[in-house]
Amino acid sequence: MKQKRFFLALCVAMLSLTTSHAQCTLNNTAFQSGEYLTYNLYFNWKFVWVKVGYASLSTVKSTYQGKEAFRCSLITKGNGKLDAVFTMRDTLLSYITPQLVPLYFRKGAEEGKHYTVDEVFYTYTSDRCNMRLFRKKDKNPGKWTSASDSRCVVDMLNLFIRARNFDNSKWQPGYTLKLPVADGNGVEDATLKYDGKETVKGDNGVKYRCLKLTYTEYSKRKRKWRQLATFYVTDDANHIPVRIDMNLNFGSAKAFVTNIKGNKNTITAGAK
Q1: Cα 138 from Cα 198, distance rounded (Å)
Q2: 3 state DSSP class of 155
Q3: How far apart are CA 128 and CA 49, in angstroms?
Q4: Quick one: how many helices (H) and strands (E) in the chain?
Q5: CA–CA gap between residue 136 and residue 237 (Å, rounded)
């Protein structure tokens, strides 16, 4: 009898784990290990857009806690021109399963005179997404909190990765996805809105037919919505981000693609 109860309990646990992961799984059709994208960064300085640095987005096969995973990193770095006004050194790191389920997220951000670290550790039990959250600012010791949600919770980088794999074949302008997004401070509601198609020229000299996606996040503390970024991704199977518009605490910035390497699919949305 004890063995039977143990077997049933084990089956329930395994089923619960599968179900919790299933709500977050997504078929990866857009990228592969070895993809490497680079960008020029521009800052709006006295109504003039000035080149102030660079960014890179890379994806490689890795492991997380002994299991197969993708390691995705987004790095932004300002140069001397921007440092004279505002220091910006951001590194975003995300580990995800091959089915794009979030496992771990870290953001280290040096912005102005402050350095902030956010971490999110994901685990899945029953039909819940459970998170251990960490936020540290400057020399403060940092604070641990926890959160749990029945929905699939993502972080800023994982959202960006997942959006590349969404099926947009039936989207119409104005179509909006509602998503919970986590950082070291907690979980906030966010939206990703499809605003139609536009032609965007990258800094590599290529014009691309792009999907325009607007990201907006709700701040519980400030009790208001704020548009944080607009992504222009290629209108093909890769959904490569060609241009990113960012609304920062200290102004506006843009990133334009300079080089694309290791893309999974043939790029059909661009022409010289």
Answers
A1: 40
A2: coil
A3: 45
A4: 3, 15
A5: 38
Q: Cα 69 vs. chain centroid, distance in angstroms?
A: 16
Residue 28: partners with Cβ closer than 8 Å, 6 or more residues away: 98, 99, 100, 165
> DSSP secondary-structure letter at 25?
-
Of 165, 161, 217, 222, which Cα lies nearest the Cα of 193? 217
pTM (global) more than 0.70: yes
* Class of residue 39 by CB neighbours under 10 A (exposed 0-12, middle 13-18, buried 19+): buried
Which token pair is 217? 């996040």
CB atoms within 10 A of CB 136: 17
Nearest to 168 by CA among 229, 238, 215: 238
Q: Any residues with CB less than 8 A from the CB of 100 and at least 6 apart, and which?
A: 24, 25, 26, 28, 70, 158, 161, 162, 165
Identify the three-state secondary structure at position 254: strand
Q: By the 8 A CB rule, do 39 and 51 touch?
A: no
pLDDT digits (tens, 9 = 90+) for 127-161: 899 999 999 999 888 999 999 999 999 998 999 89
For 51-108, write each residue's pLDDT tens digit: 888 999 999 999 999 999 999 999 988 776 556 555 667 899 999 999 999 999 999 9
| Closest by Cα among 74, 72, 127, 133 to 100 | 72
